[in-house]
Amino acid sequence: QVQLVESGGGLVQAGGSLRLSCAASGRTFASYAMGWFRQAPGKEREFVAAANGSGRTTYYANSVKGRFTISRDNAKNTVYLQMNSLKPEDTAVYYCAARLGAVVTTAYDFWGQGTQVAVSS
């Protein structure tokens, strides 16, 4: 079992940046693939980015590739999502997720409570 707590959301103007953090409990953080997902009002939750246990393998949704960067600090049990060049369409609740084993874009087992990101035009 792992517990996840996101932070770092807020309101930013288009073109700005935010960094989300997700702190995980437990002693085996490096065993978990970590992902970021988001859900905009009236839309289904969608994949944003993921990283394997070491952080060396990463995946991104096409909509954020080149603008967002996922990274992790296993010594701090924390995964980050650096979001640059934000657009109004990036407005959503962002969720951190974890799963044991290989990094994938779906099928995560543990979820945080979410943090709101709002981008104004």
How is the biggest beta sheet arranged?
7 strands, mixed
Judging from the principal axes of the Cα atoms, what is the shape? globular
Number of beta-strand segments: 11
Specify the structural class. Answer: mainly beta
Average pLDDT figure: 96
Word description of this protein:
- The protein is mainly β and 121 residues long.
- 0% of the residues lie in helices and 50% in strands.
- It is built from no helices and 11 strands.
- Strands 2, 4, 5, 6, 9, 10 and 11 form a 7-stranded mixed beta sheet that branches.
- The model has no long low-confidence stretch (mean pLDDT 96).
Mind sketching the topology for me?
Elements: E1 4-7, E2 10-13, E3 18-24, E4 32-39, E5 46-51, E6 58-60, E7 68-73, E8 78-83, E9 92-100, E10 110-111, E11 115-120
List keywords for this structure.
121 residues; seven-stranded mixed beta sheet; 0% helix
Task: Give a brief rundown of this model.
Helices cover 0% and strands 50% of the residues. The protein is mostly beta strands.
